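User: Sequence for Formate dehydrogenase, mitochondrial below. Tokens please.
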Amino acid sequence: MAMKHAATSAVRAVTAAPPSALTRNLHASAGSKKIVGVFYKGNEYAAMNPNFLGCVENGLGIREWLESQGHQYIVTPDKDGPDSELEKHIPDLHVLITTPFHPAYVTAERIKKAKNLQLLLTAGVGSDHIDLKAAADAGLTVAEVTGSNVVSVAEDELMRILILVRNFLPGYNQVVSGDWNVAAISHRAYDLEGKTVGTVGAGRIGRLLLQRLKPFNCNLLYHDRIKMDQELETQIGAKFEEDLDAMLPKCDIIVINTPLTDKTKGLFDKDRIAKLKKGVLIVNNARGAIMDTQAVVDACSSGHIAGYSGDVWNPQPAPKDHPWRYMPNQAMTPHISGTTIDAQLRYAAGVKDMLDRYFKGEDFPTQHYIVKDGELASQYR
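Assistant: Structure tokens for Formate dehydrogenase, mitochondrial:
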């Protein structure tokens, strides 16, 4: 119910620009459609859980349904480069389904090659792996399953905050290695109670996080382009900070919950990080490119950032030599927070619903649109 409420509580506004003259007809014409899905490999884990729908092997659980209607459904993990499996299908596919967890980067060049493409669907939340301006200019429709994994990500963020605050990972590593040194852990372990936590972005995920933090008796701050209504703000117990640079130095813990846009790319650069409180903890499940990669490494190495945790990287999948893998005081994981089994069930159902509407020539739920009629959703402007 929390997910349903989050998914329907706000509707994305779109820009006031006139619809593109190049808009491609979203309503599917008669006949078979070629639908391509790009997902991560499940390998031996694919058969371990019938609800593990987000992998290549299980393909969102929609193959039988699509093929029974005469459509062609191709799934692949091979997405990068001119010789990739995805590239072979670009010229004649009608629908491309991608995910933030194993992103197929849909560039302007790929969009130009995709002469039959009408619909780009994100199985999950976050469509910045798509060149949205190029999609809008080409008259494509881009949609995602808004709200499908907001609970999953908010819970994960809370977990990461506690892991960093309590200095959990070094203690776990002691156990694994056979050591026992309480002092090595406790000298930098704290309570969460009484700390100032600020979220950069207070949309669906940010608000859920603030609600979950309230019982910990923290001082809660938030920065967003839109202030919450007074009743909700009072209920959560969070204070609005209009000036981001005024909020950040107040925070013991900073959580990133803003989309990746031209305005937020590299938002946390060397200069902004230098202004943060020494010993700050940062959690980022939003997008890796919001952070300056080397600036984070340098600040973790100096101790200015006392702990950094997240599951988003730039690029993704992260190469083996990515410096965040080896910097001190980090608690990084692959991009997993929004792809729990519960989230997979929700975003698989959402994709199926939108495909069904596409075949019938019906509109999607308004909040799912990222690009429609040549217009971008407001959070990506």
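The first strand starts at residue 34 and ends at 38.
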